[in-house]
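Regression check, adenosine-5'-triphosphate case 562:
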Amino acid sequence: MIRLNKVSKKYKNGTHALYDITLNIKEGEFVYIIGATGSGKSTLIKLLDGEEVPTSGDVIVNKINVGKLKKSKVPMYRRNIGVVFQDYRLLPKKNTFENVAYAMEVIDTPTKVLRPRVREVIKMVELSDKSTSFPGQLSGGQQQRVAIARAIANKPKILIADEPTGNLDPKMSDDIISLFERINKEEGTTILIVTHDIQTVKNHPKRTIEIASGHVVRDLPEGLKDEDIPKDIEPDVYFEQTAKLRLDEEKKQEETEELKEENV
Amino acid sequence: MFRRFSRHIKEGFIGVGRHFGMAISSSASVTIALFLVGFFLVITYNLNLIAKDIEQSISLSALVDYNITSQTALDTLEKQILSIDGVKTVEFRSKDDEFTYYVEQYPDIREFNEYYRDQNPFHDAFLVGVEDGNELETVKNKIAAINGIASVHDGGSNTYLLINALEKVRIFGGVLVLALAVLAVYLIYNTISITIRARDTEIWIMKNVGAKNGYIRAPFLVEGIIIGVLGSLIPIGAMIALYLYAFNRSDGVILGVFNLVEPYPFLLYLCLALLGIGIIVGFIGSYLSVSRLLRNKR
Ligand SMILES: Nc1ncnc2c1ncn2[C@@H]1O[C@H](COP(=O)(O)OP(=O)(O)OP(=O)(O)O)[C@@H](O)[C@H]1O
Ligand SMILES: [Mg+2]
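Current build output:
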């Protein structure tokens, strides 16, 4: 379903965000992506939804080479992918139903198809009783569920969430992850969640990919276990430390390579 | 299809309503620009008519050397002149004709003049009609260079001055109108940019669920066009009223000799032109603005 082959991304300003990433994610998988701030997680997502193109390597989604996609084909491609962000991005003047319906209207879905589907996804995120509420009248967790309903309304094959629980307390975060699990099961959607939230990741163990300074440093099929993260340290601090270690290693490697070159 | 179309139109109007102040001030710039465009079009169009009147009467007279008298030589000269670019007509006038013409201008002393017909001081001449007043000078020089032509004369330097002046008015007006149009485009561009910023969540959603670029663009283009059309209404009304007033007041004649262009269908074309410019300016301004947004992100 998703295949990254030696993908590197260097932004125009010279920042090298990803190095040589090779990854395989199967259809229907549920995957966490973790890593320190600035490690390249969001960049990875942008490569997947076609907003950015890789500097080298191939990003293949659904047999489509996303980086080589013509600009005019990007919108059609994006209908395969739903995205959810930390800051919900709901339209404040539309109620729950209208917010979800909006995503279907703008791709010309006939009303006949639209109405039942909107009701269906609102039910799935357990907001049927909040159908006519406006975002301002909803809690953060409820707003995030509206955003999720909107993201899955068009039946994307892949659902990507960048820090979906970033603004939520642990209880709400737990509910949101449970919701992703249900969507994964009921709709068969492949799910990719970028998160800092180690506690939630541990509560719902799933394949976990750790990125540090643009490299995949760990890919744990069984998910993050207690022994993978030292207890006496904040997860973020820990991530940064591993990132530093990784960087130091790289520097050493580069230096030895340079030495080799000099010796030749 | 229709639902979608009306949706874009609705969104466009909502956009105008949301930034009414901005929309009105950019409409006002369109209004000012179109006012000047309108005045300028009226003036040039009328000047063109006058210029045509004048140009039609523009001709050169080319005097033939005294020593050329044979018919074949005269025919060759005529052909040579006719072959010059920009020459419309050539008409031969013998020196006898010229003398007669001269004599008839002073009927009081006809007898006296006729007495001298034997010593006619006139040249044989060609009366040369020129296609375009702008080419008068070049044609004149070319004819003067022909062997056997003694000299070439025209209606005087005033003709040149007038033609040059008309040309300058046209160029100056064109540049002015262009500059104003660019300014109007720029103001509309800014207005639409602000609308776009106000709607960035909507645009973000549309992009993320895969709405086509044309779909995202449409309401903003509609908004730009609305601003352009709003801006053209006042100048259109004013031009109709002012021109009809001026035309009726002057009976269609100014400075005693020059005709004004008939109001119909001239005013109709003028209004369509103003409306068209309003639409185009609004379209370009909003198109540039939306394109910048859609280009930045894939
Ligand atoms: N558009 C951009 N232009 C230039 N550099 C960028 C751009 N976007 C991100 N970067 C840089 O690329 C690196 C990776 O950024 P990215 O946003 O992928 O990190 P992240 O892992 O998502 O971090 P966070 O957890 O804080 O969201 C950072 O150094 C960032 O500054
Ligand atoms: Mg990020």
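Comparison notes: Chain B has a mean pLDDT of 83. Residues A 11, 13, 15, 17, 35, 37-43 surround adenosine-5'-triphosphate (ligand 1) (CB under 6 Å). No diff flagged against the previous build.
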